[in-house]
Amino acid sequence: MALVLIVEDNPINRDVLGRRLERRGFSIRFAEDGPSGITAAKVLKPDVILMDMGLGEMDGCEATQRILADPETAHIPIIALTASAFESDRVRALAAGCVDFDTKPVDLQRLLGKIQDVLGPKTPAAAMTFG
């Protein structure tokens, strides 16, 4: 079962996205801010991280850069999530090291496709059912 770490400061967003992904066969863990996301990445070694870009003191770009700078966590793919759909936000997230970018509210089918792209064979069979 693929482990997804969701780094999101909004408890409603964490709950909704977490439940939707759990129903698709993923194991889910949460972090509420950049520093706890960095720690969780190091401890949990998730298969993929969904990183909110609009976090508090330490934004998602900085947290991503720190995760990828650590040899223990540098291999973990990070998908940026943000409520901002500006091209400059996408460019900034990708420049920070995110492998992909998606907007909120999350289109689950589109996000599942992006997760499948980075996880490949680790993707739960239920997640690959797009109907």
Automatic annotation (TrEMBL):
Question: Is Repeat one of the keywords?
Answer: no
Q: Which SUPFAM superfamilies match?
A: CheY-like
Pfam families in the record: Response_reg
- Which keywords accompany this UniProt record? Phosphoprotein
Gene Ontology annotations of biological process type: phosphorelay signal transduction system
Per its record, how is this protein called by name? Chemotaxis protein CheY
Residues bearing PTM 4-aspartylphosphate: D52
Q: Response regulatory domain spans which residues?
A: 3-119
